[in-house]
Specification:
Elements lengths: L1 E5 L6 H12 L2 E4 H9 L3 H8 L1 H17 L4 E4 L10 H8 L1 E6 L2 H8 L14 H19 L4 E4 L5 H14 L1
Parallel strand pairs: 1-3, 1-4, 2-3, 4-5
Helix pairs in contact: 1-8, 2-4, 3-4, 4-5, 6-7
Bound molecules: shikimate-3-phosphate.
Length: about 170
């Protein structure tokens, strides 16, 4: 089985994915890390030097190569991965997809400290951030909501979100 975790930046895709991979004894992949390894460059410098269009093509290619492989794994996607090309159809064809959902307020609280690592939001101040996230999430929602399952993260700790995911998988 392949499990994909999707959702906005800061929703905990990588942290929850890593935790769940230990619980289920699955390999864990982080799409952003796979991109950085392939390109030998950090995400912010790919955006800066090669631009977003280049990044999105590369992201889509690595997503497809990874999903087509035979193994079982948990894959944390990037926040924008579901939105470009035919990614969501591909993700649902090959994996059990989970949308980790949070409100703009919850996301802005989580993201403020680490926004420098995210080129899409690094230029925004505290007040602009929540408004930007609200609009951006509204645009991305039609894609995120195509996930097979939705988990509300709220104030839950990582083990509780991981438990929600395993319960859904067991009930299938
Ligand atoms: C992006 C999210 C990032 C990374 C890139 C673009 C986005 O991944 O792929 O900075 O468009 O939302 P995380 O969601 O893991 O931060």
């Amino acid at each position: 089985m392949k499990i994909t975790l999707l959702g906005y930046m800061g929703s905990g895709k990588s942290t929850i994915g890593r935790f769940l991979s230990k619980k289920l004894n699955y390999t864990f992949y982080d799409l952003d890390e796979l991109i950085e390894q392939k390109e030998g460059q950090s995400i912010p410098s790919i955006f800066k030097e090669k631009g977003e269009v280049y990044f999105r093509k590369l992201e889509n290619q690595i997503l497809k190569d990874t999903l087509r492989s035979d193994s079982s794994f948990i894959l944390a996607l990037g926040g924008g991965t579901p939105v470009f090309y035919d990614s969501m159809d591909f993700i649902n064809q090959y994996s059990e997809s989970f949308y980790l959902s949070l409100t703009p307020k919850e996301l802005s609280k989580r993201l403020y400290r680490e926004k420098s690592k995210r080129p899409i939001i690094s230029h925004l101040n505290d007040e602009e951030l929540e408004e930007f996230i609200a609009k951006h999430l509204f645009e991305r929602n039609p894609y995120y909501s195509k996930a097979k399952y939705k988990v509300e993260v709220k104030e839950k700790e990582v083990p509780e979100v991981a438990l929600n995911i395993t319960q859904i998988l067991n009930q299938r």
